[in-house]
Amino acid sequence: MTKNMVVLASSGGSVLDEALRVEACRQHIALVVCDRECGAREVARRHGITAEVLPSRTGREFSDALHDYFLGKPEVDLFLSSYSRLLSGQFLEHYRGRIVNFHPAILPACPGLDGFGDTLKAGGKFIGATAHFVDEGMDTGKPILQAARPHDPELSDEENRQRVFLQMCRMFVQIVAWFAAGRVDQQGRVAGARYELSEFSPNLDEWVRLTW
């Protein structure tokens, strides 16, 4: 059954662009909503997905605008967020447990706007990414899926960043698939997941692992 999923974005949309190339992901995403004109809007249009802009200067303004926009509309099954500010208010309360954020660091280490950069500044030996539920805090919600790999000092920062980017693309598609199948509970546990030694925990479904 197709789910009604919405992407919240305020960035260039590079992860979204890669994820929407996968049919199993694209079929569930009905809408992209941005707080400003940004690359994610053009990405959505290029893939034939409706995009809306709700101009907002703060996270609270965007949260209130989202609450009003979706009031009376068909219920959204999942929000996938690459939005850079905190969500709050009635919107967060109504959709608690149905908003997932993607962060380029291994939380709880290095929350905030530059998770990857802060990992490097701290001298972290592992780089990675986290998909987690959104709550009132700064990247403090329960993790659902994490990825980690050694930071390779022989590579440039951009090459290491590209590895994290690929992790986030895989995570995005996997999160869509897991939620579409009803496999994620409110504690971030994934039904039927495996936890063998891997770059990703829980392990990715094989078809997602082979996508990139």
Overview of the molecule:
The protein is α/β, with parallel strands linked by helices and 212 residues long. It has a single domain, classed as Formyl transferase, N-terminal domain (Rossmann fold, 3-Layer(aba) Sandwich), CATH 3.40.50. 33% of the residues lie in helices and 20% in strands. The protein has helices spanning 14-19, 23-26, 39-46, 59-70, 89-94, 115-121, 157-180, 206-209, and strands at 5-9, 29-34, 50-53, 78-82, 99-103, 126-133, 143-150, 200-201. The longest helix is centred in the last third of the chain and has 24 residues, at 157-180. It starts with a strand and ends with a helix. The mean pLDDT is 96.
Can you give me a brief rundown of this structure?
The protein is of the alpha/beta class.
Number of strands: 8
| Residues in helices, as a percent range | 25-40%
Number of domains: 1
Model regions low in confidence, pLDDT < 50 over at least 5 residues? none
Individual helix count: 8
Q: What is the name of the CATH architecture? A: 3-Layer(aba) Sandwich
Distance between the termini: 25 Å
Strand order of the largest sheet: 3-2-1-4-5-6-7-8
Structural class: alpha/beta
SSE string: EHHEHEHEHEHEEHEH
The CATH C-level class name: Alpha Beta
Task: Describe the global form.
Answer: globular
CATH topology: Rossmann fold
Could you describe the largest sheet, including whether it forms a barrel?
Answer: 8 strands, mixed
Give the full name of the CATH homologous superfamily.
Answer: Formyl transferase, N-terminal domain
Q: Write down the Rg.
A: 16 Å
- Share of β-strand residues: 15-25%
How much is the average pLDDT? 96
